[in-house]
DNA sequence: CGCGTTTGACCCGCGC
DNA sequence: GCGCGGGTCAAACGCG
């Protein structure tokens, strides 16, 4: 794959579990990829600072057990229950930003930080603080280009964002017209 | 005191 | 079976 391409292998079609508009306001969103290289995504908007792209997630085969972000292969966490089909949906996107933690409208609690191989920057692990909400995300800066931050979301929020934004509804509606139901 | 972060230990799957 | 790498736990700590 190409040097800076973010590749994501998900297991199902998903709505976006985060609030896009604050991210757009606070950072420069480069790309949102949801599956297999797919540059089949729909460009929802662009200007000189913000250019983002949404790609649809298709069903992947049972063999696709890996998420590959640049050269780092990350194992998907297998459930103890053996429910292969109930894998949490995950996707990743690139942002060019000075800050690593983007305000996406949800409250997160950091629960870990790890040094990953071939990367001089640590990866941070966050969990949504809302009760019963199991959404996780991890944030990592690329060592090849420290201006780029990769955020990977896992799971779906079962509740609205704590910090609603005015134009969130618009963007959500706009996205849903492109997503298959 | 309540909530979030830090950080080393622990766990677990996988490859050798 | 052992070590490695990635992911999580949880006690200690920090801060408003």
TrEMBL record:
GO-annotated cellular components: nucleus
InterPro entries: WRKY_dom (IPR003657), WRKY_dom_sf (IPR036576), WRKY_plant (IPR044810)
Pfam families tied to this protein: WRKY
PROSITE patterns reported for this sequence: WRKY
Coiled coil: none
GO function terms (MF aspect): DNA-binding transcription factor activity; sequence-specific DNA binding
Subcellular location: Nucleus
UniProt keyword terms in alphabetical order: DNA-binding, Nucleus, Transcription, Transcription regulation
Protein name per the record: Probable WRKY transcription factor 75
Superkingdom of the source species: Eukaryota
